[in-house]
Amino acid sequence: MSTAYATLAELKTRLGDELYAQLSDLSGGTTPSDTVGQARLDDAHGYVNARLSARYLTPIDTTGNSTLAEMLRAFVCAVVAHDLLAMHGDAMNNLRPGVDTRLRYWIDLLRDIQSGKAALPGAAPLPSPTSGGPTSEAFGDERVFTSDSMKGF
Fold it and tell me: What is the pLDDT of residues 38-72, one digit of tens each?
């Protein structure tokens, strides 16, 4: 099963046309590149799935859960934006206040979910590992050196 948490159209809507054009045009202009945008979107899906796979079966099925779908969309779009910003070097300095903070919020939340400090709403976690087989037993001679036998030494 292959699930896209965010489409290119959703990424553009979330970033806005101007920011999307600035970030996806790697030559420094303002002409948007859907090839670049889609490549970063594909990478972001892989990154999000890799982070979540420690606790959830990925890709995560969001059918019937709009809250979960929106959260995963936000994760993917934040990863894309952060990745594209990193490709531009000084672009972070030109962002309007709060944009980097918002991106970091989603990426930090993704890490918290991976580590178990937070959880995805409505997603079923991986089952706990179970083991089978015989139980262990320890047997042998009685202890020779005990507290009582060593008194006075």
Answer: 999 999 999 999 999 989 999 999 989 999 999 99
Q: How confident is the model at residue 111 (pLDDT cuts 50, 70, 90)?
A: very high
In this prediction the pTM is 0.75
Q: How far apart are CA 130 and CA 19, in angstroms?
A: 48
- Which residues lie closer than 8 Å to 151 by C-beta, 6 or more apart? none
Cα–Cα distance between 31 and 153 in angstroms, integer? 86
Q: What 3-state class would DSSP assign to 80?
A: helix
Give bridge partners of residue 56 from the DSSP assignment.
125
Helix (H) or strand (E) holding 37: helix 34-52
- Among residues 101, 107, 105, the alpha carbon closest in space to that of 83 is found at 107
Contact 1, 71 (CB under 8 A): no
Task: Give the span between the Cα atoms of 153 and 61, in whole angstroms.
Answer: 68
